[in-house]
Amino acid sequence: MGKRETLRPGRNDQIVGLHGAADFEVRNVAVNGEVWTGSGTTTRRVFPAGWNRLPEAEQPAENEFSVALRIRYGRFRYYTGGDLTGVPLDNLPAWHDIETPVARAVGRVDVAVLDHHGWLDSTNAFFLGTLRPRVVIVPAWHATHPDHGVLRRLISTRIYPGPRDLFATTLLDAPRTIFSYLGEPFKSTHGHIAIRVDGGGARYFVFILEDGDDLRRIVAIHGPYQASSESR
């Protein structure tokens, strides 16, 4: 039976490489409402003291307890944050925005998986403007993935400058119709999305794989992309 332990935010020694790759790190950024500060292994609580005694409608929902990770290899940086939220809905308190403190800790990345499928309570402007991903992965499977406002933020060069390539796992017809006036902002709208990073982490590729069977045939390859030297 394998070893089990609780994921500790701020740590970079719980998920480690098996083959001794130099300059490789998996940083635990957030879990259960506790977020890494970006300095050492220090963290801070985002949820207020006594949150479990608040009215049920104001308590953090399950998504806000999600794990967020930053994977680093050389200059390459990859972010994934589960179902974290960044846009408090229905006049909820501001602390329901978990993305902002996460973004402050993570900094710029090359590839980002959108939080909460890009739904309307995620992907706020500060989050995007801080991470500034060159490649964005949208884990879409529903008519509301991604939200219209989220997509507008994703393609806005006023939020952050430069090119960005968007890839969705399954973009349905309903959102495609709504987004039609924006042209075709996605490089791919169907299939598994795999990131392959060159040895040393200087460049990477996006592979689109067929998801209709178990063969995982390669449908398309995008890149190479150069990992940003500005990543920290």
Description of the structure:
This protein has 232 residues and is an alpha/beta fold. It has one domain (24-226). The chain has four helices and twelve strands; from the N terminus they run βββββαβαβαβαββββ. The strands form two sheets. A nine-stranded mixed beta sheet has the order 3-2-1-4-5-6-7-8-9, covered by helices on one side. Strands 10-11-12 form a three-stranded antiparallel beta sheet, with no helix packed on it. Strand 7, helix 3 (148-155) and strand 8 form a beta-alpha-beta unit. Helix 1 (99-106) runs parallel beside helix 2 (125-131). It is globular, with a radius of gyration of 18 Å. The model has no long low-confidence stretch (mean pLDDT 95).
List the helices and strands and how they pair.
Layout (H helix, E strand, L loop, with lengths): L23 E8 L2 E3 L6 E3 L22 E6 L2 E5 L18 H8 L4 E3 L11 H7 L3 E4 L9 H8 L9 E4 L4 H6 L7 E3 L3 E6 L5 E7 L8 E9 L6
Parallel strand pairs: 5-6, 6-7, 7-8, 8-9
Antiparallel strand pairs: 1-2, 1-4, 2-3, 4-5, 10-11, 11-12
Helix pairs in contact: 1-2
Largest sheet properties: 9 strands, mixed
What percent of residues adopt helix (DSSP H or I)? 10-25%
The dominant shape is globular
Number of strands: 12
Would you tell me the overall average pLDDT?
95
Write down the domain tally: 1
Pattern of helices and strands: EEEEEHEHEHEHEEEE
- Main-sheet strand order equals 3-2-1-4-5-6-7-8-9
Cα end-to-end separation? 36 Å
Which class do the helix and strand fractions yield? alpha/beta
SS field, number of helical segments: 4
**Could you tell me the radius of gyration in angstroms?**
18 Å
Residue ranges: pLDDT <50 for 5 or more in a row?
none
Taken as a percent bin, the fraction of beta residues is 25-35%
